[in-house]
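#structure-requests
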Amino acid sequence: MKLENQFRDFLTDTVNLNATRMTLLENSTGSIKEATHGFSWKPKIRGFAAHGSWAHQTIIKPVEGAPFDADLLVYVDPVEGWDAKAYIDELYACFKDHGTYADKMRRYSHCVTIEYAGERKIDMAPCVVNRGGLIRYEVCDRANNRFVASEPKAYTDWLIERNAWSGANSFRKVTRLLKYLRDIKATFTCPSFLLTTLLGMCITSADKDSEALGDLPTALRTVIGRLDDWLQVRPSRPEVRNPVLQSEVISGAWDDTRYANFRERVHTYRTWIDDAYAEPDREESIGKWRRVFGDDFAKAVAVNEASNVSARAVVLAKSIVGEAISASGDLVDLVKRFGARALPAGFSRLPHMRRPTWRTASQSPFSVSIAATVHVSKNGTRLSEAHSLKPLPKSQWLRFTAVAGSLPIGRDFDVRWRVTNTDREAAAVGCLRGDFERPNDGAMRWEQLAYRGVHMVEAFVLRKRDNLLVAVSPPFYVTIE
């Protein structure tokens, strides 16, 4: 399912750099430009220009706790007798002598960096124009003391052209989404310049006004599909060049191991995106998109669905019995009266429940179910067997065991437990859960009964030798009064 509204909100609320930070960036760069004009730095300044993701409009909000950064070019005339490192070293010295910036400065191979207390960074790079009387742009490689050809404006124009072909700004939006995916998952390495170039290569003039890029979810599926196709026919690390400066090889950021991992991860995410896009059930589709982008995708929708299961159950119950149902009642009351029939549609696949990421075995060696017992405390006296949906009081403990037939799962397998809470009490304290938990007693799982509602426990069985998912239990419904 496309879920266009959820994608729009996800970009606005989570992915895009917010307006406050953009204002801080613009104010900071304005002050930096003014200060630079006042320096005794020898080069004549021709002008400044945003560079990188800032110029390309693909800048994203950083992961929590990390600063956001932006690139600023300062175009200058050449200084007779200066080598490449002098442009950076002398600019750095000017900033270090300035009272505002002295304690904010760092110096790297191609730029000086102004850091604002871990909040934001601005990388300022000198770009020398027409050195030696030749028409050209060069940035300065301080580490190797050499000038390096560059075409920043031409590259930005190349991206603008592809964005125009994609329509509705979808190329930029897809690029932001995949940069976010890279940063939040941290499962592959690909510098932004290389990643943006690879994505740009997936767009052609034939895409203008095409349905393949007609909306953001469709454009995302199309672009990552094309990227995956390109990678899959290249099992060995390819050579990728700057599309506007063929002398520049930009794939050097990869070694063979990093490339192989990137290729594999893109294939996995392509599979998940295709699955989420094709899923016709709304709740399941939201859950599958969250598998791709994490818990901040459609977060409000997911919490709302889990919090309001009782309200939906009341509507269902009225349709079952054809009589008045107390508006003050909840799902617990309805389960006590109607059993499993009271569970609303989609209850066992609520969007906030984490979807499995393991590869699934083609055949299951056995089926698995859950046996549970009631105890006065963890590891305490056993009171009785527990039964799915049978109401239990708060504060008692349940011990869950995954069984194949009547026998516990063998040593050749691992069990992961998906423990999911629902309804208002759990939501009020931020404890809806829904993630995968490890056993806390051999292969078994202990849980204390804490929140009124109908909750779920499921067992996912993994074969140790290949980490394939081989069996999944039906949900065990825990009803807490």
